[in-house]
Write a structure and sequence with these properties.
Radius of gyration: 12 Å
Order of helices and strands: EHEEEEEEEE
Strand order of the largest sheet: 2-3-4-5-6
Number of helices: 1
Shape: globular
Number of domains: 1
Distance between the termini: 10 Å
Length: 97
């Protein structure tokens, strides 16, 4: 398991590229956010996914986020096709399937 370390500063998030770290964009009027993360596998990939606070946004693919930065949970699982990492973010920890 890898801790999802929140980086409030987007530039530091992109500069450091700590595996599993996260950066959360500001929610829009519908409660959707850009949920950024550095791939937990260590490949250094920086990825943004669409997430809803407490709900899954209509356009797919998208995820439901529990609203916590320190104990973030996403549903469903995250599947990175380009590097092959597949797993869950639960209670602030990334866990491979």
């Amino acid at each position: 398991m890898i801790r999802a370390i929140p980086f409030p500063d987007f530039e530091k998030f992109r500069e450091k590229r700590v595996a599993g770290s996260i950066h959360l964009g500001a929610p829009d009027d519908l409660g959707w956010i850009s949920f950024w993360f550095v791939c937990p596998c260590g490949c250094g990939g920086v990825v943004a996914i669409n997430a809803g606070v407490g709900h899954k946004p209509a356009p797919s693919p998208s995820w439901t986020w529990n609203g916590s930065q320190t104990e973030a949970t996403l549903y469903p699982s995250v599947n990175r096709i380009d590097c092959g990492w597949h797993g869950w973010l639960r209670d602030g920890y990334w866990e491979a399937v």
